[in-house]
Amino acid sequence: MKFPGRRKLKHYFPVSQPKPILPTSEVRPDKDTYVVGLDETIVDVVANVTDAFLIKFGIKKGLSNLVDADTAAAIFVELTAEQCISDHFAGGTIGNTIHNYSVLADDKSVLLGVMSANIGLGSPAYHYICHTSSKVDMNHLQGVAGDIGRGITLITPDGERTFAIAPGDMDELDADHIPESIVAGAAALVTCAYPLRHQGKPIKQAMIQALQYAHQNQVPTVLTLGTSHLVEEHRDELLSLIKQYINVLAMNELEAEALTGLSDPLEAASEILNYVDIVLLTAGPEGMYLCGHTEDEMKRETTNPIKSGRLADFNRWEFSRPMLREACQHPIKVFSHIDPYMGGPEKIRNTNGAGDGALSALLHDISANHFHKSAMPNSTKHLAPFLAYSSFAQICKYANRVSYEILAQNASRLSRGLPEREDSLEEAYWEK
């Protein structure tokens, strides 16, 4: 009996042979290579409204307004009834990052957070799932009675943007919903500093629990800083968390300055390397820095032009591969910098998600190293305990290209992988 669709060899299912194991969307810690992300689940809603609409709901124009659940629900109902909503985007810095990772790697990732237990058509949870890659395993989300977070952007006829933020139940993630086996089997755990804002909410302890599981099982931990204002408010607590648990720290130049007090990105990155193993620092039109450590005997000199800033000849060893500082007998700091890809897009409509895109590329390289080491442990690529598969310079190129793709579109998440021609070039660079 024939079946529709392409079949390379046979057009039937022979009953005398064992059934093939079908691919599963759920992560298997003993078999799969994946990353885990913990996030506040939130949907970004964009709507066009009148000034009278803002007055009706007591929303201050041009500002970011926190609203309660009832007000948010009333706003959403009226926006839906009046057909004012132009776009829905799944949001969250970590949600964006692991979605992008799954698109780039065409492989699995795991999202930890909350999700509405009852999902209705058109609800925030519905749009979040619709705009997230099917490769993202959501089986470990915690069900909640209420809505996930909503960030509503209200645009008035004069073009002014006003924000109504409704946290919903996005911070209700409990520590006992963090699966240790899933975290322990991951290539990396990535989370953000935002839960530190919510001292009375369970998500903060859930984040710390996930970091503890990762630390206990030697899983690389990655943290993004969120906003400079958050860093300023929680600097001491952040530094304590970073020193205790974090391997990779991602930020922009404003967040780096808030953390270190140094306005020069290169100097700030060098200071932060006293606490962590890798620093990913995006600096807007100045480009991006990737900095870290390697073993002195394993360092490789660049063939690219030598650059100097506050640090002389800082990119000299950028062809080296990242290592954990504690794994080096004689660690040295390595710095790499890249200008925006092709000078940046001709027109930038939205900068949201550019840093998340860069981080997803770094995570892809870390997971590639994890996969290759598992598949070929005796390869010369693993003569030393490297943290990533490629050199600082090559990861910089990859991250920069992904950031460009985000900036060139009007959304904070990748809708597809990199163009095929560049994918083939990417294969060549993996081998360097």
From TrEMBL:
ATP binds at residues 282-287, 355, 400. It comes from Marinomonas vulgaris. This is Guanosine-inosine kinase. The keyword Hydrolase does not apply. Belongs to the carbohydrate kinase PfkB family. Pathway: Purine metabolism; GMP biosynthesis via salvage pathway; Purine metabolism; IMP biosynthesis via salvage pathway; IMP from inosine: step 1/1. NCBIfam families: PRK15074.1. InterPro entries: Carb_kinase_PfkB-like, IngK, PfkB_dom, Ribokinase-like. GMP binds at residues 39-44, 92-96, 197. It catalyses: inosine + ATP = IMP + ADP + H(+); guanosine + ATP = GMP + ADP + H(+). The keyword Ribonucleoprotein does not apply. GO terms for molecular function: kinase activity.
